[in-house]
Amino acid sequence: MDQALLSPNDDISLETALVRGGLRRSDFGEMSEAIFLTSGFVYDSAERAEARFAGEDEGFVYSRYANPTLEVLEKRLALIEGAEACHVTASGMAAVFTGLFCYLRAGDHVVASRALFGSCHVILTTILPRYGIETTLVDGADLDAWQAAMRPNTRAIFLETPANPTLDLVDLTAVAEIAHAGGAKVFVDNVFASPLGQKPLELGADVVMYSATKHIDGQGRCLGGALLADAEFCNDHFMPYYRHTGPALSPFNAWVLAKGLETLSIRVERQTRSAHSLAEFIEADGGARTVRYPFLESHPQHELARRQMKSGGTIVSLDLGSKQAAFAFINALRIVDISNNLGDTRSIATHPMTTTHRAMAVEDRAAMGITDGLVRLSIGLEGYDDLQADVERALAAAKSA
Predict the structure, then answer these.
(1) Which residues pair with 40 in a beta bridge?
(2) Is the pTM above the cut of 0.85?
(3) Do residues 269 and 392 share a domain?
């Protein structure tokens, strides 16, 4: 039965795929996935080694290229995403950079949404230009801006939706139509929505990236990233670059992430319910100037969120009006931790202006809507009543600041 679960065409539920997808047991018949902590592999003969390196014999050559434990995670992720191929990397940013850099060439042009995670912004505006690759940033909600930014040499569109940390949305179907009409591929960072909350490939995207560190592990244990696309992109672009530059994930981390997938639906569904309820509570409290959550009716793109997302996600953003009020809010929390991670079983509060987006220019942060008073909350698995009481206490502290 396990081998039958390797294909995205198998008629199985998402929950079953999360637990059993990609499983390939060894001759020992282990229940849990094995960890192959090996750098290399041996061959029966010199002829077998020659055939393996020539691609004429199935099997593994070196863990920088591929590894049985990584393959389990890759097959499972491809199955739940509905992708032809998946490759995992040492971190989410390794997936983003490798995915873009393996495809782009000097003289190419990228169009990207302005609302981005700080490191993604640096890749597009600082690192890629060193290699002759130019990026135009646009308001992700403005379809006319996407269209106007397209050039004959535009080969890629990059976006986050929902965006980090403002939870701005991009109409994936509409932007994909613009991109494909101009001969460009669409790259989507789907971290905030998670594989459960949104299916970019079904909406027209060509390449999907994840920081598996977030919801996929979701327990603050290890780093990892993933890129999913069709087999042609992975074979022609991603694998040659990946194989020779080495952003490989360790087998142990791959095993941890594969085990994390087993509980992904249970965790994210519970966290999403709490996040939605908490967003409604904060909005009703009135202590924040604005509250952002995709499934709140007050979200300016609420209709789009309902149309392209399966759930509102685990993240809530609120603007408390000033850095002083934001710090008072964060410092008053007793249950919610202060950290820069997200998608964890433990709830986390982040002040993006002074942490995750600190390296950005002031004007770039302002253009993205990252104000001094913005706080990003990643909602965990704590009891909802405890979380609400903690946030209520923090809101009171912010009002007094």
Answers:
(1) 62
(2) yes
(3) yes
